[in-house]
Amino acid sequence: MAQQKIKAAGMYAEQPLKQVYQQFKTSAAGLSSHEAQTRLTTYGPNTIQRGQRQSQFKLFIKNFTSLMALLLWVSGVIALFAGMLELAIAIWAVNLINGCFSFWQEHAAQKATDSLRQMLPAYTQVLRDGQQQRIDAAELVPGDIFTIQAGNSISADARLLSATGLQVDESALTGESVPESKTVAYQPGDGKFAETNIVYAGTMAASGNAQAVALNTGMATEFGQIAQLTQNQRPNISPLQKELNHLTQQISLLAILVGVLFFILAIFFVHYPVAKSFIFALGMIVAFIPEGLLPTVTLSLAQGVQRMAKKHALVKDLASVETLGETTVICSDKTGTLTQNQMTVNHIWLPSREYTVSGQGYVNNGQIENYTFGQAADLDLLLQISVLNNNTTVKAPASAGQQAKILGTPTEAALIILAEKAQLDLPSLQAKLPRQQEFPFDSERKRMTTIHRDHGQTVAYVKGALDGLLAISTTILDHGQVRPLTAADQQNILAADKQFAAKGLRSLAMAYRKLDAQAASDQASVEQQLTFVGLTVMADPPRPEIYAAVAKCHAANIRIIMVTGDSALTAKSIATKIGITSDQARVVTGTELAQMSDADLKTALSAELIFARVAPEQKYRVVTMLQSMGEVVASTGDGVNDAPALKKADIGVAMGMTGTDVAKDAADMILTDDNFASIVAAIEEGRTVYSNIQKFLLYILNSNLPEAAPSVVFLFSRGFVPLPLTVMQILTVDLGTDMLPALGLGAERSEPGIMEQPPRAHNAHLLNRRIIWKAFGWYGLIAAILSTGGYFVTNHLNGWPQAALAASGFDYRQATTMTLATIIFCQIAAALNCRTQRSSVLKVGLFSNRKIIGGIIFEVFLLFALMYIPELQVIFNTAPLRGGEWLYLLAIPIPLVLIEEARKYGLRRHAAADR
Ligand code: ATP
User: Fold this and answer.
1) In the annotation, is 333 catalytic?
2) Amino acid 117: pLDDT
3) Residue 668 has pLDDT above 80, yes or no
C-alpha cells in the first residue's frame, strides 16, 4: 500500500467501516504477514521516539563549570600571572582530565539506564494470515486488526470493530483519569479524542476487551505528535543523589572557609606572597572537596541497575535501587510469583463422582480416567463450560521439548488442555454454541460469564471462585438431574474443596443457567440462580527457587506477607509449605479485612498473617497501614486494580510476563520472569550498591587528613617546615590516583552476609558517624602520621635540620615525593580495607575485584612516572626515592591491612557471640 497522506484518526470515526477497510486495503480477516512486512518498511516501526533528555554537549560542559572546576580554572590564571606557567598548565590539564572522566562516568550511567528501556518490549495480539499472533507492538502497521485487552496499553490509533465493556483510561492524552466508555457505534462525544469508536495509542484499556483496526502508528499517532512537542524530560534525581549533592555542597563550603582561613594565615602569619598563598589555600580546598563523588555514585547506581536487570529485575529509576536496600516488608501475591503459574487440572469433582486426570503441563499428555467427551452428561457439561467460557488459545509446541504458546491465562489454558485430554472437538462445539455476550473476569467478582445460543435456547456459562459462585447458586446438577441445592450439598462441596485446598490445590467452580431469551442481560441479573455443576482442581507447584529466597528474606529480617486472590486454605497451605509462615498464621479474608478497623488491622499486621480472597484494591489499605507502622514496603501486582497499591508502595513490583501494562506503568520495578526470588536478588543488589557507595565514600575521605596535615604543619611552623605536599601533589592524589580504585569499590560484589543483617534504617545517613570516625580518626589519622613522618624521615636522611632545606632543590623535592608516595601507599591499603565491612578481604579474594587491582597498578605506575620522568618531575615537584624509602613504602600496606583484618575478625566473633 502506497503511503497515503496521514489523517488524524478522528477523521475515520464517521466513515462506514467498509470504507475504512478500503482505504487501508484490509478486511476483518486482517493482513497477510507479507503485506504487514511491506507496510512496516513504508510506515516505519510503531514506536515513539523521544529526544535526548539533555544534549550531550551541555552534559559535557557541565563538568567544567562546577564550583571545583571553576576554582581550578581561576587558580590556573592566578598561577600564570604569578609567573608559574608550569603550575598553571598542570592545574588546567588535571581539571580537563577530571572533567572528561566525570563526563564519561555520567555518559556510561545514562547508557546503562537507557538500555533497560529496550529490554521490555510491549506485545500486541494481531490477526495475520487469518491467525491470532502475538507480535512486538513495534511491528504493528496501519490496517492490522488487533486485540485490546483490559489492563493493556493500546498500541495504535484505531477504529473499533467489536467491543465488550471496553473502558479506556485516556489520561495520558487528556489528563482525565476517569475511564471513557468506548463502543463500536459512533458518537462524537465532547472535546478532542472523545469519539466513542476510536481508541488512541498510549492510552490504556481499563476494562473489557475489543478488536480494532489500526489507523495510525508510531509518530503519526496523536500520542506521537504530543511526545514530539514535549521531548524534554527531566531525569529523576534519587534521594541519595540529592543527599550527596547536599553533602558535597556542605563539605565544599567548609573547605572554602578553611581555605580562606589558611589564605589569610599564610599571608599574615607566614608572610607568604599573595599569589603563592592563594595557591597554597587552593591545595586545602582541593583536598577537602569530594569532587569525584557524585558521578561515581551515579555510575555505581546505574551499574547496580544493570546487574539487577541481569537478575530479571528492571528498575525504572535510580532512586529505587536505594529504596530496595531499605525494604522491610514484601507484600507478595501468590499465583505466578511464588508459584510457577503452570496450571494442570489433575482432578475433577462432580456431585456424582470424582475423576483423576493424568499428565502435566500445557500439552495433551494424559487422559481423564475412563472418560472421553460424550460419555457422561454431567462431565460433558463441565468441560463445555470450561472451554466455551474461555478466551485463551494454546498453540501446540512446534517440536518436542518446546513450550506450548499460550495466548491468554494459564488457568484457562489448563482447561483447554483438560478438554483436549477428553478428545473434545472445540471448533465444532464453538460453532454449535456461538457466544453472544461476555461478562469478563475481574478480580473483584472473581468469576466470568459467557452467554451462548444452544439449539434455539440461551444459556449462561459461569466459572469462578467457589465461595462466590456457591452463594449465587440455587440448584445443583447431580446424576444428570437438576435439583435444589441443599445445605448438605453445600457442606459436601466445601468439604471436598477444603481437602484439595489443604494440599495447596486451586479449585475453580463451574455453573450454568438457562436464560429467557427476552430477559434483561445485565451482569447482576444473569449471575444469579445458577445451577452448580462441579469443580476443576488445579495444581500450581511452588517455584523451586522460592524456598531459598524465602529463607534469605527471613535471615535479612524482611517480612513476607502473602496477599492473594486465592482461597484461604490454598493460600495457607502454600505459605506454610514454602516457609513464609508457620501453620499458626492467621488468615484474614477480603471480607474480614473490609470489616476490620484500622486499629485491628494494625494489631493483625504485627503478627504472622496471610491475606486471602482479597480484592486488589484492598492491597492499597494493607500497604498504607504498613507504611504508617514505619515499614518500607515492596508490593507486587499484575492487574489493572493493583495500580493504586503499586503506586503507593515504596517499591511497586509488576510482573513482566503476565502483568498488564497498567501495572507495569504504575510500578517502580518490573520482573521479567515474574519470580519472587528476583525481588530478593534485587534487594540484595540494592543493599550492595548502598554499601559500595559507603565504601568509596570512606575511601575518598580517607585521604583528606593526610592531604591537609602537611599544610597545617607548614602553617603552624610559620613556614619553618617547607610545605611537605605541594598543590600539584594534592591534585595528583585527589584527581589522579584515587579515582580508579574508588570506581572499583563501586563495582564490588555483594559482601558475604549482606543478607544476614537487618535492613538499614529508612532515615539513615550515608555519611554516618562510623564512616567519619574511620576516615578521620583511624585510617586518615594513621595515613597523616605515616606520610608526614615519611617526609621527616627523608629530610632526616638528607641531613635536615643541620643542612639548609630550601623549598626547591632536589632534597626538598625528594621529601615531598616521599609524602606523596606514602599517601598513595596508605590509599592502596585503604582500597583493600574498604572492600569489606566485616568479611576478611582474603576470603572474598584479594584479587577478585579486577578494577581495584587495575586501579592500584595504575597508581603505582603513575607514581613511577612522576618520580622518574624528568618533565613530570619539574611540574609535580618530584624526585626519585632511594631503596630504603621504597622498602618503607612497600611495607606500609601490610600492617595496615593486617590490623584491619584483626578488627574485622573481632567484629565477626562478636556478631557470632551475639547470635
Ligand atoms: P494471586 O492474587 O495470588 O495472583 P489468584 O490468581 O488466585 O492469586 P486472582 O487472579 O485475583 O488471584 O483470581 C482470584 C480467583 O478468581 C481465583 O482464585 C479463581 O478462583 C478465580 N479466577 C481466576 N481466573 C479466572 C478466570 N479466568 N475465570 C474465572 N475465574 C477465575
Assistant:
1) yes
2) 65
3) yes
Q: Which residues are CB-contacts of 390 (< 8 A; sequence separation ≥ 6)?
A: 408, 412, 415, 416
**Residue range(s) of every CATH 2.70.150.10 domain in the chain:** 9-48+123-154+156-216
Give the pLDDT confidence of 757-773 residue by residue, as tens digits. 889 887 788 888 888 99
Q: How far is the CA of 626 from the centre of ligand 1 (A)?
A: 25
Atom of ligand 1 nearest to the CA of 506: 18
How many angstroms separate the CA atoms of 636 and 55, rounded?
A: 36
Max avg pLDDT among 150-154, 274-278, 293-297, 853-857: 853-857
Residue 497 Cβ < 6 Å to ligand 1: no
Q: What is the DSSP string of 439-458?
A: EEEETTTTEEEEEEEETTEE
619 lines ligand 1 (CB under 6 A): no
**344-539: which CATH topology?**
Calcium-transporting ATPase, cytoplasmic domain N (3.40.1110)
Tell me the CATH number for domain 9-48+123-154+156-216: 2.70.150.10
Which of 332, 386, 406, 566 maximizes ligand 1 atoms within 8 Å of its Cβ, making it the mutation to test the pocket?
566
pLDDT tens for residues 518-533? Answer: 666 788 999 999 999 9
For CATH 3.40.1110.10, the residue range(s) in the chain are 344-539
As a whole number of angstroms, the distance between CA 770 and CA 243 comes to 18
Shortest-distance atom of ligand 1 to CA 443: 11
Instruction: Find cell 509518530 and name the residue.
Output: 219
**pLDDT at residue 235 above 60?**
no
Question: Does the CB atom of residue 565 touch ligand 1 within 6 A?
Answer: yes
409 lines ligand 1 (CB under 6 A): yes
Between residues 82 and 651, the one the model is more confident about: 651
Residue closest by Cα to atom 9 of ligand 1: 565
More confident residue, 913 or 393: 393
Q: How confident is the model over 263-292, as a mean pLDDT?
A: 85
Judged against a pLDDT cut of 50, whether residue 232 lies above it is answered with no
Q: Is 175 left (phi over 0), alpha (psi -120 to 50) or beta?
A: left
Which of 144, 157, 169, 333 is catalytic? The answer is: 333
Kindly give the number of the ligand 1 atom that is closest to the alpha carbon of 615. Answer: 11
pLDDT at 2: 46
Determine the distance separating the centroid of ligand 1 and the alpha carbon of 332, expressed in angstroms.
15
Question: Do 512 and 531 contact (CB within 8 A), yes or no?
Answer: yes
Q: What is the CATH number of domain 237-309+684-751+764-914?
A: 1.20.1110.10
Pocket lining: 811 vs ligand 1, CB cutoff 6 Å: no
The pLDDT score that the predictor gives to residue 272 is: 86
Which helix (H) or strand (E) element contains residue 212?
Answer: strand 204-216
Q: What is the pLDDT of residues 859-879, one digit of tens each?
A: 999 999 999 999 888 888 899
- Between 328 and 193, name the one with better pLDDT: 328
Q: Is the CB–ligand 1 distance for residue 448 below 6 Å? A: yes
**Cis before 801? omega within 30:** yes
Indicate if ligand 1 lies below 6 Å from the C-beta of 159. no
Closest C-alpha residue for ligand 1 atom 18: 566
Report which protein residue has its CA nearest ligand 1's atom 7. Answer: 566
pLDDT tier at 803 (50, 70, 90 boundaries)? low
| Residues forming CATH 1.20.1110.10 domain(s) in the chain | 237-309+684-751+764-914
CA distance 176 to 247: 40
pLDDT band of 233, cuts 50, 70, 90: very low
User: Are the beta carbons of 513 and 533 closer than 8 angstroms?
Assistant: no
Q: What's the 573 CA to ligand 1 centre distance in angstroms?
A: 17
Q: 249 in helix, strand or coil?
A: helix
Q: Tell me the average pLDDT of the chain.
A: 88
665 lines ligand 1 (CB under 6 A): no
- Overall size of the chain counted in residues: 915
**Cα 446 to averaged position of ligand 1 atoms, centre (Å):** 6
Q: What is the pLDDT of residue 317?
A: 79
How far apart are the CA of 114 and the centre of ligand 1, in A?
A: 35
Cell readout for 670 is 518490573
Cross-strand bridge partners of residue 536 = 348, 508
